[in-house]
From TrEMBL:
Keywords: Coiled coil. Residues 5-32 form a coiled coil. CDD domains: USP_At3g01520-like. It comes from the Eukaryota. Residues 6-99 form the UspA domain. InterPro entries: Rossmann-like_a/b/a_fold, Universal_stress_UspA, UspA. Pfam families: Usp (PF00582). It comes from Ciona savignyi. This is UspA domain-containing protein.
Amino acid sequence: MAYPAEEMKAEIEKLKKKRNALNHKYKTKMEKYTDTQYKLVFEVRDHSAGESIVKMAEEENCDVIITGSRGLGAVRRTILGSVSDYVLHHAKIPVLVCHK
């Protein structure tokens, strides 16, 4: 089934606005930390979220990965998988998981 081009364009624009809002939100939050080096990256890749985070951290030579945890229950996490769990077990650098 083909996805209508106009709907796809509208969805892409909506996602770009969301990305820009998130970028602005976190840049604003980080402005007060002038002694901290950081890089915000919003990118779409052809991998799972966890795999993409680990690969990007390696490519960018990151010192640490900080990720969140949505607090899924054990059953949902087992069925759906957990991005933070994947990152924690596959990253070669320290990972800090911030719980909800």
